[in-house]
């Protein structure tokens, strides 16, 4: 087990999360299913590409935005993402924190491909909670990530919580779903941003396909 965890850590260190630079934000979406979600159209976007990004059908996007055609997109336009249509893969993962997603899965930020979500705290609550029951396999400083917690779950799923100020759980312990496990650290510009990942074995998955 220790060898597997060491290999896992070496793998994620090799693809450290993006640097938190909010001046590079091109799209925003509230983190949490109880708020409306929007995407800001930019050059090169298409309804098909956006549908793949969020796991929502083209038909649902067209219907909810009352588009007469999939080509009816204007740069700078706000496109409503019908979050209720997102396929959640029958998952029970919950949001680790409330806030605003400023960087998405596979988004290129500062020439680095994001492996998860970067969530900016907007309500002042910096508490990070376990997304689902899991064993704490890592709770320490990780180069390129800051203080980081990694939980291992059933079926070889892992959740990663990085850029923490305080860690409240130790490696070798068990964390219950919704249990506070740490607090978010501030970035250089004073924003509080959590980097969150869901991985199957060591392969990053789009958290939006799993979070409820």
Strand content: 25-35%
- As a whole number of angstroms, the C-alpha radius of gyration is 17 Å
User: So, the CATH homologous superfamily of the largest domain?
Assistant: Glucose Permease (Domain IIA)
**What fold name goes in the CATH topology slot of the largest domain?**
Glucose Permease (Domain IIA)
Along the chain, the helix and strand elements come as: HEEHHEEEEEEEEEEEEE
The shape is globular
Total count of strands: 15
Q: How many independent structural domains?
A: 2
Largest pleated sheet: 11 strands, antiparallel
Low-confidence stretches: 18-30
Concise summary:
The chain has two domains: 138 residues, Glucose Permease (Domain IIA), CATH 2.70.70; 43 residues, LysM domain (Membrane-bound Lytic Murein Transglycosylase D, Chain A). It contains three helices and 15 strands.
Description:
This protein has three helices and 15 strands. By secondary structure, the chain is mainly beta. It has two domains: 138 residues, Glucose Permease (Domain IIA) (Distorted Sandwich); 43 residues, LysM domain (Membrane-bound Lytic Murein Transglycosylase D, Chain A), CATH 3.10.350.10. Strand 10 and strand 11 form a beta hairpin.
């Amino acid at each position: 087990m220790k060898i597997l965890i060491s290999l896992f850590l070496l793998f994620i260190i090799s693809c450290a999360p993006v640097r938190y630079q909010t001046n590079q934000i091109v799209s925003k979406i509230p983190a949490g299913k109880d708020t409306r979600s929007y995407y800001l159209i930019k050059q090169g976007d298409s309804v098909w590409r956006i549908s793949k990004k969020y796991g929502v059908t083209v038909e649902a996007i067209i219907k909810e935005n009352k588009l007469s055609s999939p080509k009816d997109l204007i740069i700078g336009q706000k496109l409503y993402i019908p979050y209720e249509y997102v396929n959640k893969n029958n998952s029970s993962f919950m949001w680790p924190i409330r806030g605003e997603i400023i960087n998405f899965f596979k988004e290129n930020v500062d020439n680095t491909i994001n492996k998860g979500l970067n969530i900016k705290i907007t309500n002042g609550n910096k508490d990070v909670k376990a997304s689902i029951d899991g064993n704490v396999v890592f709770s320490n400083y990780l180069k390129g990530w800051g203080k980081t917690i990694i939980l291992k779950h059933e079926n070889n799923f892992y959740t990663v919580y990085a850029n923490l100020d305080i860690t409240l759980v130790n490696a070798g312990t068990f964390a219950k779903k919704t249990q506070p496990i740490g607090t978010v650290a501030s970035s250089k510009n004073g924003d509080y941003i959590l980097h969150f990942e869901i991985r199957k074995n060591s392969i990053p998955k789009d958290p939006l396909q799993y979070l409820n």
